[in-house]
Design a protein that fits this description.
Radius of gyration: 66 Å
CATH superfamily of the largest domain: Histidine kinase-like ATPase, C-terminal domain
CATH topology of the largest domain: Heat Shock Protein 90
Oligomer: single chain
Strand content: 15-25%
C-alpha cells in the first residue's frame, strides 16, 4: 500500500492539481483584469487631472492639519514661486495673500470645519491685479478625510473687469437716461412715449400743461390725447403709420394748447434697437404758430414790397442764388424790354446781358466777354457795385448791384438821362441865380449851422458897410455883428439879430424882428431855416412904409375923433329934438282931448296926422339915439321876460294900416308856443316894426302886381327865429353890408338894418339878410332864450 497510490488519493491529487490550476488561471485572469482596470483607472485619473488642470476652477483640499493638496496653478495664481504645501505658505513677501485676506480665509475654513458651513470669498493677491473667487465647504470623507475642507478657486479677473465695465456702462447709461429724462421733462414742448399697444406710457410736464391735466399719471390713466382726430386720423393712427413706415412721420395740425388754438408740427418716431423688435413710439409737438404767422407775414411783405416796387420810378430786379431772374418791376421791364417769359422762365443773368446787348441796353465796351464775366461776378461780391451806363440811344443809366444774403442779387437801374441833360444847364442857372441874388431889393445872407457867414449879396454888404475881404473870410455871426453894432440907433439891438440867426440854425425856428439904423432907416428882418441846415437872413427896408404908417395913424386918429364928434352930435341932437317933439305931442294930445274946444272933422284929421308924425319922428329919434349908443358901445339893454307872440302880433297890427295903404298883403305865421325870452321889449318892438316897415316900403312901389310881406316865427328850447320876407326888388347891397357888419345905405334899408343888427347883437343873437335882385329879401333874426 505504501508503494502504490490508491485511486482515491490519485483522484484527490488530481482534483487538487486541477483546482490549483484553476485557481492559478483564475488568479492570472484576475490579475490581468485588475491590471486592465488599473490601467483604465490610471488613464481616467490622468484625464480627470487634465480636465481639472484645464478647468477654470482650481480644486484645493485643506486637511485638518492645514496641509494643502493642490496643483501648481495655485502658486501661479497667488504669485508664489512654487505651489504651497500648507496653509501658511499661502502668504509670501510681496506676493500671495495679504494678512487680512489670509486671516479671513482661515476663519472661513474653520467655520466650514466646525459647522460644515459653506462660504464664498473674493480675494486679491498682493502685487497682482488678479481677482480670485473662493468657494469652500466641508470635503467628503472619501476625498480628504475628517476635518478636511474642499476649496474651489476661480480666476474672476476678466469677469470682474467685464462686470466693472458693465457696471460703469450701466451707470453711464442710467446717468444718460436720467439726464435725458430730465431734459424731456424740462422740454418746453409736449413729448410722449407709446408702448407697443400704442397706449400712452410716458408724458412730460409740457404735455400735462398743454392738456390741462392734474398730473402725468392722470394723463396716462385717462388716455388724454394732445392731438385730436383730424381728417379721420387719430393720434394712435398716426403713431401706427410711423410704426408701419419704420421711420419718423410728421404732420401739421391744429392743436388746443392750454385752451388756445395753435398750429403744431407733430412728429411720431418709432423706437427699435438696431436689428431688434419695436419697443414703442416716441412723439413730440412743436408750436409753429409764430412760424406760420411769420411766414404769412413774410409772404404778405414780399407781395407788398413787389407792389411797392412796381410803383417806383426806379427800375428794380431781383435775381435768386441760381442767378435766375426772380422778379422785375414794371419800370425795369419797360427799360430793358423784358416780357413775361423772361420772368416766368427765371432766365439767367448772363443770358439777359446777352439779350440786352442785342437790344442796345448795355454800354459799348471793347471786350464784351470780359465785361460780361465781370458783371456775372457781382453775385460773388460782398459789397454793392455802382456803375454808369451810357447806351447807344443816348440814355444814361445809373446801375447799382447789391448782393443779397442768400447769394442772389438786387439790381437797381435809374434813368439819369434827364438829370444829365439838366446838369448841362445847371451852370447857367447858377450864374443866373448869382446875378439875381446880387440884384435883389432885399439884403440877403446865408449862415451855416456853425454860425459862419456862407453867402451874401451886394445889398447886404452895402447895407452894413462891410468890405468884401471881411465877408470873404466867412466870419462867425458873433464876430461879424459885434463889429457892426455902431450902425444901429440902439447898438444893443445887435444881440437881437444874433439871437434870430441862432434860432434858425440851431433850433430850426423862424424868427422875425425890426431894427432902426442910426441914419433913421427902418428894416424888417427874418431868419428862415433852410432844408440843408443853413439859415437865411432877409432884411427889408421899410422906411417908406413906416412913414406911411405914421400918416395913416394920424388920419385914423382924426377919423376916430370925427366919429366921436358925430356920435356926440347925434346924441345931443336926439335929446334936443325930443324936447320940442314932446311939447308938440303934448299939445296934440290936449287938442285931441278937447281942451281947446270941440274940433271939427277936418281939424281932428289934422291933429291925428300931427300925432302920427310925432310918433314916427319919436321912433326915428329913438332909433338914432340907439344907433349912436350902439356905435359908442353904451347901448343899455333891459332884461325882462318878453312875450314874443304878443309882441309880434302887436307889430303886425301896428303895420297893417301902412301895408293896406300901400296895397301890400301883410301875412303873419306865428307859432302858438313861442313862449318868452329875456330881453328889452320896447327895443324888440322897434326892431320888428322897423323890419316890417322896410319890407312894406320897399315892396310897394316896385311891384306891378300886389306885393306880399310875410312874418314867420317859431322856436325851440334854445331860442326863437323871426323871419321877415317880401317879394320886392331885393337889396343885395344891404345884405352884403349887414353880412360884413357894416351900415347899409339909406337907399337900401337905411338906419333900420344897421340898428336892427346892433339890437340883435345886444340881445346875444344873430341876424342874416338874404336878398336877390328881382326876387325879394329875407331877414332872419335868431334870439336866444336867455342872455
Amino acid at each position: 500500500m505504501s508503494g502504490t497510490l490508491s485511486p482515491t488519493l490519485l483522484f484527490a491529487l488530481g482534483l487538487f492539481a486541477a483546482l490549483w490550476l484553476l485557481a492559478g488561471l483564475w488568479a492570472t485572469l484576475r490579475g490581468i483584469a485588475m491590471q486592465r482596470r488599473a490601467a483604465f483607472a490610471g488613464g481616467q485619473a490622468e484625464r480627470l487631472a487634465s480636465l481639472v488642470e484645464a478647468s477654470p476652477q482650481l480644486p484645493v483640499i485643506v486637511r485638518a492639519d492645514w496641509r494643502i493638496e493642490a496643483s501648481d496653478r495655485l502658486g501661479r495664481w497667488l504669485g508664489l514661486d512654487r505651489g504651497p504645501r500648507n496653509f501658511d505658505e499661502l502668504r509670501g513677501i510681496g506676493s500671495g495673500l495679504d494678512a487680512a485676506s489670509h486671516d479671513l480665509l482661515r476663519q472661513a475654513i474653520l467655520g466650514a470645519q466646525r459647522g460644515a458651513k459653506p462660504f464664498q470669498l473674493s480675494l486679491k493677491p498682493e502685487g497682482s491685479h488678479r481677482t480670485i473667487i473662493v468657494q469652500g465647504a466641508a470635503a467628503p470623507q472619501a476625498v480628504g478625510g475628517a476635518g478636511s475642507v474642499l476649496l474651489w478657486l476661480s480666476d474672476a479677473t476678466e469677469g470682474q473687469q467685464a462686470l466693472a465695465h458693465a457696471r460703469a456702462e450701466r451707470d453711464e447709461a442710467l446717468a444718460a437716461f436720467e439726464a435725458l429724462s430730465g431734459l424731456i421733462e424740462a422740454a418746453p414742448f409736449p413729448m410722449w412715449f407709446r408702448d407697443t399697444d400704442l397706449q400712452l406710457a410716458l408724458v412730460n410736464a409740457a404735455y400735462v400743461r398743454a392738456v390741462e391735466a392734474r398730473s402725468a399719471t392722470a394723463v396716462i390713466d385717462g388716455g388724454i390725447e394732445l392731438c385730436e382726430t383730424v381728417a379721420g386720423v387719430s393720434a394712435a393712427d398716426a403713431a401706427d403709420a410711423a410704426r408701419a413706415a419704420g421711420s419718423a412721420q410728421q404732420r401739421t395740425i391744429p392743436v388746443t394748447i392750454e385752451g388756445e388754438r395753435r398750429i403744431m408740427r407733430v412728429v411720431d418716431v418709432p423706437l427699435a434697437p438696431e436689428g431688434g423688435r419695436m419697443i414703442g413710439i416716441a412723439g413730440y409737438a412743436i408750436d409753429i404758430q409764430e412760424l406760420e404767422s411769420e411766414r404769412g407775414a413774410h409772404r404778405r411783405f414780399v407781395d407788398t414790397q413787389r407792389e411797392l416796387l412796381d410803383r417806383l420810378s426806379a427800375a428794380v430786379a431781383q435775381f435768386g442764388p441760381d442767378q435766375g431772374l426772380a422778379f422785375a418791376n414794371l419800370p425795369f421791364r419797360r427799360l430793358f424790354g423784358l416780357d413775361a417769359d423772361d420772368v416766368g422762365e427765371a432766365r439767367p443773368f448772363a443770358r439777359l446781358l446777352d439779350a440786352w446787348r442785342e437790344r442796345g441796353r448795355t454800354p459799348e465796351v471793347r471786350d464784351y466777354p470780359e465785361w460780361r464775366q465781370a458783371h456775372v461776378d457781382w453775385f460773388a461780391r460782398a459789397e454793392a457795385s455802382e456803375e454808369d451806363w451810357r447806351l447807344r440811344d443816348g440814355t444814361h443809366l445809373h446801375v447799382v448791384a447789391q448782393p443779397t444774403p442768400d447769394g442772389g442779387l438786387l439790381l437797381i437801374a435809374e434813368d439819369k438821362t434827364e438829370q444829365v441833360q439838366l446838369a448841362g444847364a445847371r451852370d447857367t442857372l447858377l450864374r443866373v441865380r448869382t446875378a439875381t441874388f446880387d440884384n435883389l431889393f432885399e439884403a440877403v445872407a446865408v449862415f451855416a449851422p456853425d454860425g459862419r457867414l456862407h453867402l451874401w449879396n451886394q445889398r447886404f454888404r452895402r447895407l452894413w458897410g462891410v468890405d468884401e475881404p471881411t465877408l470873404a473870410a466867412h466870419p462867425r455871426v458873433d464876430v461879424l455883428m459885434g463889429g457892426l453894432a455902431d450902425r444901429l440907433a440902439k447898438p444893443n439891438q445887435i444881440s437881437v439879430v444874433q439871437e434870430v440867426i441862432r434860432a434858425a440854425t440851431l433850433e430850426r425856428q423862424q424868427r422875425v424882428g425890426e431894427i432902426r439904423f442910426a441914419d433913421g432907416r427902418h428894416f424888417d428882418f427874418a431868419s428862415i431855416p433852410l432844408p440843408d441846415g443853413n439859415a437865411l437872413l432877409i432884411m427889408l427896408d421899410i422906411t417908406a412904409s413906416r412913414k406911411m404908417e405914421g400918416a395913416l395913424r394920424e388920419r385914423n386918429e382924426a377919423l376916430e375923433a370925427a366919429d366921436k364928434a358925430k356920435t356926440a352930435f347925434l346924441s345931443r341932437m336926439s335929446y334936443e329934438l325930443r324936447t320940442p317933439l314932446t311939447s308938440i305931442g303934448g299939445f296934440g294930445e290936449m287938442l285931441q282931448a278937447g281942451y281947446a274946444g270941440k274940433l271939427g272933422d277936418q281939424q281932428r284929421a289934422y291933429v291925428d296926422a300931427i300925432m302920427d308924425s310925432v310918433a314916427v319922428l319919436g321912433r326915428q329919434i329913438d332909433n338914432v339915439l340907439d344907433l349912436a349908443q350902439g356905435e359908442a358901445g353904451t347901448l343899455a339893454i333891459e332884461r325882462a321876460p318878453v312875450d314874443v307872440r304878443a309882441l309880434l302880433e302887436k307889430a303886425l297890427d301896428d303895420t297893417r294900416p301902412f301895408a293896406d295903404a300901400e296895397k301890400v298883403e301883410l301875412v303873419g305865421n306865428i307859432a302858438a308856443d313861442l313862449g318868452t325870452i329875456e330881453g328889452d321889449a320896447p327895443r324888440l318892438s322897434r326892431l320888428v316894426a322897423g323890419l316890417l316897415d322896410n319890407a312894406v316900403r320897399f315892396t310897394a312901389p316896385a311891384r306891378k302886381s300886389a306885393g306880399r310881406v310875410l312874418l314867420h316865427a317859431d322856436g325851440d328850447k334854445r331860442g326863437i327865429d323871426i323871419i321877415v320876407s317880401d317879394n320886392g326888388p331885393g337889396m343885395p347891397e344891404a345884405a352884403a353890408a349887414v353880412a360884413k357888419g357894416q351900415q347899409a345905405g339909406t337907399d337900401t334899408g337905411g338906419i333900420g338894418l344897421a340898428l336892427a343888427r346892433q339890437l340883435v347883437a345886444a340881445h346875444g343873437g344873430t341876424m342874416e339878410v338874404v336878398s336877390e335882385a328881382g326876387q325879394g329879401t329875407l331877414v332872419r333874426v335868431s334870439l336866444p332864450r336867455g342872455m
